[in-house]
Amino acid sequence: MASIHANLPSPPLLVHGKRILSRTLQKLPLPTIKERQNRVAVVARATGESSESSTSLSIVKSVKNIWDDSEDRPALVGLGFAALVAVWASANVITAVDKLPVIPSTLEFIGIVYSSWFIYRYLLLKPNREELFQIINKSVEDILGQ
Question: Which InterPro entries match (predicted)?
Answer without folding.
Answer: CAAD_dom, CURT1
